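Hello,

Our lab assistant flagged a job as stuck in the queue for most of the afternoon. It eventually completed. Since we weren't sure the result was trustworthy after the delay, we are filing this so someone can double-check. Below is the sequence as submitted and the structure that was eventually returned. Let us know if re-running is recommended.
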Amino acid sequence: MVVWIVVIALIAVVIGFSAYGVKLFRKMICREPYALAPTPEEADEPMKLDALWSPYRMAFQEGKKFFCLADRERAEITAHDGIKLVGHILWPEGVRAENGEPDLSKIKGFFQLMHGFHGTGYSNFGLVLPFYMSLGYAILLVDERGHQESGGEYITLGVKERYDCRDWVGYLADRFGQDMPIYLDGISMGATVVMMASALDLPGNVRGVIADCGFTSPKEIMGYMIQYRMHLPTKILMPLAGLLCRFMAGFDWEACSTLDAMKEGRLPVLFLHGRADDIVPCYMTEQNYAACTSEKDVMYVDEAGHGLCYLMKTEECQAKLAAFVQKHNPR
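-- returned structure --
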């Protein structure tokens, strides 16, 4: 009788953890509902913000408003695996003529911005958009796969997104010229994406990478979230989550890491991270910086939480960013 009770209890535990693993998979990997980019008429509508960023609502709202009212056009490409990808090109004032054609002599290049996990370009980068435009650059805000208007049912935490990033670089180079300077800039998962992409075969007009609070690999960040954010046993949930990623979402979370990419990359990299970040721990940027064999620089902000370096130390970040961009594109 006792044996049967133990067996039933073990079965119940396995079923419980399996059910939680599936729930975790759906939360972390499955896409959110499709959503169109906000229109100029929606510029003042309140944003939905996570608790982390709610205290800074006014600043983020201004960023959204800037995006909504900017001169922008929708771009679309097909990913390497056939998924439709959507982006939004923002032009500095006066660059485009009435017929919509840009005068490329009026810009110094492009920033290609890759947002974070379950984020949007305008929410993650809204604060820095005016500054990048003030430097003389146009901007490509990418809707990553599984987000907003782009296709894809699953988020692969950088494994497939790195190729999407490369394909968007190809789009910019093909449309605006192989000599048009491009900077890759990512935040959170987007930082992981641009770091991984930097080790791929990119055109020579990519001048540098800006990586703000990126994690080292899908496996590492998933393990950190399960153990330290959810306080659950990794030995049980990690193998299950890995199997779900492989057989349902079609990717191996051990296929790549930023540490390997940083050892292989040739592009200069500017790293940023807040030491108060409890979503992507700061030690991951320390590891990425140590692994990087190309030209590199780093800025840490002691009081900044996840993705908040620019907000907490705006002037210092602007100086660091401007120096990095000017050094590698004195155009």
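-- support follow-up --
The delay was a queue issue, not a problem with the job. The result is valid. Residues 6 and 12 are 10 Å apart (CA to CA). The longest strand covers residues 71-78.
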